[in-house]
Amino acid sequence: GIDAEIFSRAVDILVSRLRKKLLPTEYIQTVWGSGYTFIGKPR
Fold first, then answer.
1. Separation CA 19–CA 25 (nearest Å)
2. What's 38's DSSP letter?
3. What is the pLDDT along the chain (43 residues), one digit of tens a residue?
4. Strands (E), 1-43
5. Among 14, 17, 18, 26, whose CB has the most other CB atoms within 10 angstroms?
């Protein structure tokens, strides 16, 4: 429904903001049909 669409866009917007703050942007990858994944370097 409409609530799911609003939530989906909210997540997209938050990820977009994170990508701007986390440079380089390849730390967050889009997984088509599933969502997003964080690719970090092991410490």
1. 5
2. E
3. 566 666 668 888 888 888 888 777 777 888 988 888 888 776 6
4. 28-31, 35-38
5. 18
Query: What does the alpha-carbon distance between residue 36 and residue 23 come to, in Å, rounded to a whole number?
Result: 16
pLDDT confidence of residue 42: 62
| 17: number of Cβ within 10 Å | 10
Rounded CA Rg of the chain: 12
Q: Which amino acid is at 26?
A: E
pLDDT of residue 43: 65
